[in-house]
Write a structure and sequence with these properties.
The protein is built from 10 helices and no strands. The protein is mainly α and about 180 residues long.
Length: about 180
C-alpha cells in the first residue's frame, strides 16, 4: 500500500523537480490519469500477495500436525523446537517481500511520470533492481527500518516517515531510470 499512498507525494516531488509549486488538489487527484494502469499493477501485486499467503500456509501446514493451542500461541511458535519453522517461514516471506519490492520499487513513480503500462513499469523496476542490487537491498532495508520504527509510537511516526520515504523514492526513481 505504501507506494500507492505515496502517489500524491510523487506528484508533489515531480512538481518541485520541474520548478513548479506543488498543489494539494493535484496531488490528491494524481491517481486519476493512471487509474486503469494502477488497477492492473495493484492486481499483479495482489496476486503476489495471495501466493505469499498460500506459501505461508503451506509452510505452516507442513510444520505442524495440528493447530497450536491458542493459549500462549506466540510462545509456542517462537520456542526453540520450532526454529526450523521460523527460519523457513522467514525465508519464504523474505523471498515474496523481495519479489514485491523489486517489482514495485520504481514502478508507481514511473507509471505516474510516463503513464506507461503496468508490465513495462514492473519489468523496468526489476531491471533497475538487478542492475543496482546493493543499492536496492540497502533501500529496502532502510524503508523497512524506518517504517518499523515509525510504527512504534502508535503509528504517529508514519506522518514523518511516509513523506520522507515518498519524496526520496521519487528522487531514487529519477536517478535510476533514465529520462525518456
Amino acid at each position: 500500500m505504501g507506494p500507492f499512498l505515496c502517489l500524491g507525494l510523487y506528484d508533489a516531488s515531480r512538481a518541485l523537480q520541474r520548478g513548479q509549486r506543488p498543489s494539494l488538489r493535484a496531488s490528491l487527484a494524481a491517481w486519476r490519469p493512471t487509474k486503469g494502469t494502477m488497477a492492473i499493477f495493484a492486481g499483479m501485486l495482489l496476486i503476489l500477495e495471495m501466493l505469499w499467503g498460500r506459501a505461508s500456509l503451506v509452510v505452516f501446514a507442513v510444520t505442524f500436525n495440528t493447530m497450536p493451542n491458542t493459549e500462549h500461541l506466540l510462545a509456542q511458535l517462537f520456542s526453540a523446537e520450532n526454529l526450523e519453522f521460523l527460519i523457513t517461514y522467514t525465508l519464504v516471506g523474505g523471498v515474496f517481500a523481495g519479489l514485491i519490492f523489486v517489482t514495485s520499487v520504481v514502478s508507481i513513480p514511473m507509471i505516474l511520470d510516463r503513464q506507461t503500462d503496468a508490465i513495462s513499469a514492473g519489468l523496468t523496476s526489476i531491471r533497475a533492481s538487478l542492475q543496482n542490487p546493493g543499492v536496492m537491498l540497502w533501500w529496502g532495508a532502510l524503508i523497512t527500518g524506518l517504517v518499523g520504527l515509525s510504527m512504534l509510537p502508535w503509528f504517529a511516526g508514519l506522518f514523518v516517515a511516509g513523506p520522507v520515504v515518498g519524496h526520496a523514492t521519487w528522487h531514487a526513481y529519477r536517478q535510476i531510470v533514465p529520462a525518456a
